[in-house]
Amino acid sequence: MRAMVLNAVGQPLEQVELPTPQPKAKEVLVKVLAxxxxxxxxxxxxxxxxxxxxPIIPGHEIVGEVVGAGTGVPSGLVGSLVxxxxxxxxxxxxxxxxxxxxxxxxxxxxxxxxxxxxxCDYTLADHRYCIPIARESSAIETAPLLCAGLIGYxxxxxxxxxxxxxxxxxxxGFGAAAHILAQVIVNRGSKFYAFTRPGxxxxxxFAEQLGAAWAGDSNQTLPxxxxxxxxFAPVGNLVPQALHSLRKGxxxxxxxxxxxxxxxxxxxxxxxxRQISSVANLTRRDGIEFFESVGQMPVHTHVHPYPLTDAxxxxxxLRCGKLNGAAVLRVQENDA
Length: 336
Fold this sequence. Notes:
Layout: E1 2-5, E2 14-17, E3 27-37, H1 39-45, E4 62-69, E5 81-84, E6 87-89, E7 109-110, E8 122-126, E9 131-132, H2 139-142, H3 148-162, E10 168-172, H4 176-187, E11 191-196, H5 201-209, E12 214-217, E13 226-231, H6 238-244, E14 246-254, H7 267-270, E15 275-278, H8 284-294, E16 303-307, H9 311-319, E17 326-330
Parallel strand pairs: 10-11, 10-13, 11-12, 13-14, 14-15, 16-17
Antiparallel strand pairs: 1-2, 3-4, 3-8, 3-17, 4-5, 5-9, 6-7
Helix pairs in contact: 3-4
């Protein structure tokens, strides 16, 4: 099978031919139809995540068909369509797993990081961590929901838990996760305000098309106060800036797995019971809840498809901020 492999951190992925993997107990063999290209993949390739094992196949926004199964897998799964997200395995026994916070499990293993991911023709996954996908779904349009959608959902859920009457929501960094979350926010009757890279008029126009109450540069100040701010851009400088945009009792939620250093800021910016929180990974419950909710509202992903062998170009376009929406590798397609 074809695979795009990271053999050394900081180097481009290499196209190689590998044997099709064979499922072990509780594993399913999945024929990959599409795999989203996430900013976390960039952090992996660029060495911004700790202890990257190489060689590794990136990719954790996977949609595919189950074509084989190991022992202990329900027979009805073969032939079904599934999504494979970032969270690939947890221990089930630690204090976090026991209180429904498996996303914080110290032994957790992640797809496309410690476990080979979806930049390939076939991949393996623990069936207990796969998400059922409706057969009529478009694989390429569904793929970004497996991380960009899920992490946005968990960020919003966190902000809602921290803020009373969370109706005015700032989104800092308007990429794949933001464009999905924006639609969820509008559908529930709240307002979102989009903060983009300074001068990125394309992203601002895209946000306005999705219903933004305001869209502008990340260094601009709103005339109104936000209830919460969700930061997707991996830029630590945005944290104090987002704090300054909040009302008293508001919250800043950082949704990235990696962020540059947060600079110091005066205590007055935090005072007034403002809060800062991070979101780490996701739980299986998040996946079930999110896919149930998007099935009841008109959420559409804006995708930029690339053939599997163009994974390096997709990563570079993401790095340079050339994309409005999400990059997706269309795996089961002639790359010629």
